[in-house]
Design brief:
Largest sheet: 6 strands, parallel
Pfam families: Prenyltransf
Keywords: Magnesium, Metal-binding, Transferase
Family: Belongs to the UPP synthase family.
Function: Catalyzes the condensation of isopentenyl diphosphate (IPP) with allylic pyrophosphates generating different type of terpenoids.
Number of strands: 6
CATH superfamily of one domain: Decaprenyl diphosphate synthase-like
Radius of gyration: 19 Å
Bound molecules: 3-methylbut-3-enyl trihydrogen diphosphate, magnesium ion
CATH topology of one domain: Undecaprenyl pyrophosphate synthetase
Strand order of the largest sheet: 3-4-2-1-5-6
CATH architecture of one domain: 3-Layer(aba) Sandwich
EC number: 2.5.1.-
Length: about 260
């Protein structure tokens, strides 16, 4: 069973500081292009932006930060950019994870790992094992991740374990098999780089997430921009299907709507 409430089944909490932030780190290529640098230089600077955002999340008391590093569609990019991204990911796992571990950060990786080579698979496994018992921020890196893959994978795994569900199953039967089922659903989604789309990120988990889009390109995103996103989130009224009047009269939360 999932530990946290599903926003379409129960009314979850609406914490003033998001417990879970999901980020599409977009705009690296354009950031580099503006500076007459190769696209990959933007990816490199993107790692620094991530470092700053991780630190800011820890300071602010965010519990889960989930970042989109490589989508299941990004294989369509030029081969040299893809291989640069793979080696950057590898370097990041080798260099950064020790630092993250020292800061009590738990690292998780979500996505279809079957397309990564053995070395990268080993590094991902090592990062997760090393940091598994940390209780600070949980940093989840989505790599070769796609929202539709997540749902399909969950259904297939569930049916393997529970062939009887082929006759029918409920949302709560499926949810433990989805990525991040151990975390609350994201409170806040941030996409940098100006595009206003989800690009196949966490389609299931974002059902009631507050969406925030900014033109700031990812390498230029830092603590101040994160605080601006959280300030915007704090102005939102999270109704989860109810009316403003109900919220004002503080209807008791929790009603399980079968
Ligand atoms: C996001 O930046 C990083 C990845 C998708 C890996 P982009 O590389 O998409 O940068 P733009 O959107 O081309 O500027
Ligand atoms: C989304 O960015 C994926 C990541 C940030 C890893 P893209 O730049 O690949 O998204 P689209 O193709 O513009 O939608
Ligand atoms: Mg992009």
């Amino acid at each position: 069973m999932a530990l946290f409430k599903s926003s379409t089944r129960n009314i979850p909490d609406a914490p003033p500081v998001p417990r879970h932030i999901a980020v599409i780190m977009d705009g690296n290529g354009r950031w580099a292009k503006q500076r007459f640098m190769p696209r990959v230089a933007g990816h490199q600077r993107g790692v620094e932006a991530l470092r700053e955002v991780v630190k800011a999340c820890r300071d602010l008391g965010v519990e889960y930060l989930t970042v989109f590093a490589f989508s299941s569609e990004n294989w369509r990019r030029p081969a040299d950019e893809v291989s640069f991204l793979m080696s950057l990911f590898m370097k990041m796992l080798e260099r950064e994870v020790v630092r993250l571990h020292e800061k009590n950060i738990r690292v998780k990786i979500i996505g279809d790992r079957s397309r990564f080579d053995d070395k990268l698979n080993q590094a991902m496994q090592d990062a997760e094992t090393l940091t598994a018992n940390n209780v600070g921020l949980t940093l989840t890196i989505a790599a070769n991740y796609g929202g539709r893959w997540d749902v399909m994978n969950a259904v297939q795994t569930m049916l393997k374990e529970h062939p009887e569900f082929a006759q029918g199953f409920k949302e709560e039967d499926l949810s433990p098999y989805l990525c991040l089922s151990e975390a609350p659903e994201p409170d806040l989604f941030i996409r940098t780089g100006g595009e206003q789309r989800i690009s196949n990120f966490m389609l299931w988990q974002l059902a009631y997430t507050e969406l925030y889009f900014t033109d700031v390109l990812w390498p230029a995103f830092g603590r101040e921009e994160l605080e601006a996103a959280i300030a915007s989130y704090q102005k939102r009224e999270r109704r989860f299907g109810r009316t403003s009047e109900q919220l004002a009269s503080e209807q008791p939360k929790g009603g399980f709507d079968a």
